[in-house]
Amino acid sequence: MLRLILLTGAGALALSASCAADEYTDAAVKAAHSATARADKWDGPTTGPTTTAGKKIVFVSGDLKNGGILGASEGVKEAGKAAGWTVTVIDGQGSVSGRTAAMNQALTLKPDGIVVGGFDTKEQQVAFDAAAKAGATVVGWHSGTKPGPEPEAGIFANVTTLPQDVSNTAAFQAISDSGGKAGVIIFTDTQYEIAVFKARAMEAAIKKCGGCTVLEFVDSPIGESSQRMPQLTTTLLQKYGDKWTYSLAINDLYFDFMGPSLAAAGKKGDSAPKAISAGDGSESAFQRIRAKQYQAGTVPEPLNEQGWQLVDELNRAFNKAPWSGFVSSIHLVTPDNIAFDGGPKNVFDPDNGYREQYKKIWGVK
Predict the structure, then answer these.
(1) How confident is the model over 321-357, as pLDDT tens digits?
(2) Which residues make up the CATH 3.40.50.2300 domain(s) of the chain?
(3) What are the DSSP E strand ranges found in 50-206?
(4) What local confidence, expressed as pLDDT, does residue 112 receive?
(5) Are 144 and 120 in contact (CB under 8 A)?
């Protein structure tokens, strides 16, 4: 005999919410898996102005201890050499005063172009205004919350992946890996607009997962990670214990200094809390993921490729052409795909021929 049970009221709502939660978890699993696909096809520009040798470029770094900024600067140096340009790198050393000094030093060199690496335009608005008055073209790497032109900030183009998609992908991996039951602590630095944007996006994505919990939203200066993270990790372990199963952060740098504290607490490298970063993909992050030691994933930027794009955007500006419109695709690195993603250098460097593509555009060999 078939029994048909009709749920009404609160029972129907609970069932509906359960179905919605399952659908969201399923979608997160599919999105995370899709992001691990091999990045071997060029989807960037194929036309643009040729280059003129002899340009003088300064890369102003927010903090060269940050692996993402360092990787982008190396890409700019490599691409600049191919274009016949001179590239100087100045380190802002992770502080507002240091970045102010670096910007001022850059201006004294009277460059044709300035690349701002890893800090907000609002913080250094006076220096950006001075650059505009001096006739220097400015492009940014992670200098805003979206890719493309920021004329109000004096930036011809900001080079970055889509922060919303990067953040969602990191959160989706935590949801996927946990089977929709992640207990998450999110680390960010509220000094930076982009850091807050990414952290809040991750928080929103986790909160949509019915079986997941955001345990805490932690604001800690990224430039002070080496001093703060060991004790902060111990404190959070004491506070949340086994409820803390995943760490999400806006940058891999936070995870550089968590391992010893986790080990001291008896946590194994491949067990909870698992760390997943929404940003950059540093060499040390790749090493941890490869060894399965206190990091389970990162959503890396194609740092070297973006360095080439920064040079290309400068060249377009020098030639009065619009920005390229290119935004790199999202990619997720985990222990399962790092064998073909990381290579011997422990860096995400897409095998899509970008160097040859840009050289062809620029008319150089």
Answers:
(1) 999 999 999 999 999 988 766 556 788 999 899 999 9
(2) 56-161+302-328, 163-298
(3) 56-61, 86-91, 113-117, 137-141, 148-150, 155-159, 183-188
(4) 95
(5) yes
